[in-house]
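Supplementary notes for students who missed Thursday's class. We covered one full example, reproduced here. Read the sequence, then the structure, then the short commentary at the end.
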Amino acid sequence: IPGLSIEGNGARVKAHLNYRMDSLIYARDSSKNNLQNYLDAGGTVEAIENFLFVDGTASITQDAVSAFGPRPTDATSATNNRTETRAFQLSPYIRGRLGPTSTDYEARYSYSVLQSTEDTASNSRVGEFTASLKGLTRWTDVGWELLGDSQTVDNDVQRDTQSERARGVLTYTIDPQFQLSATGGYERNN
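Structure (token representation):
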């Protein structure tokens, strides 16, 4: 079981990587021999100080194909109900504050890929855009937020989907422990 672990924290870059490979060799039944990869990696880059950021993640796991089949309890469990699942995500975004006011904004695009080594499992690609504006009014107990998102899922096995949402939230703070809010919005999906 060779493995590698890396951790890095700089002024504008943070990253981690944990990888291991389980190599299983059976002396009496070589048909069960296999390699199993495990990965947990991620990082954030502050490309433009206090404005443009890029997040990235990657993972490889060993998962059960069916909830009704034999569940692999560890790497040495020989079962046909195991698949290697790979997930990758890249997400650039901007965030900041508008002028001297207390209005914060964030706009983010995320692209994710999910792949499986099992033919019956679904591979998919997801593109998602989210945006938000949040602030206070001249009455400090009243806050507001505007949120919007759009998502497209391209799937190899199931049908592709699209969805869009927009919401507005008005919040009144009675005291730090108690708030009232009103939400209105729009949603569309196929």
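Commentary. The chain is about 0% helix and 70% strand. The CA atoms of residues 51 and 101 lie 17 Å apart. If anything here is unclear, bring it to office hours.
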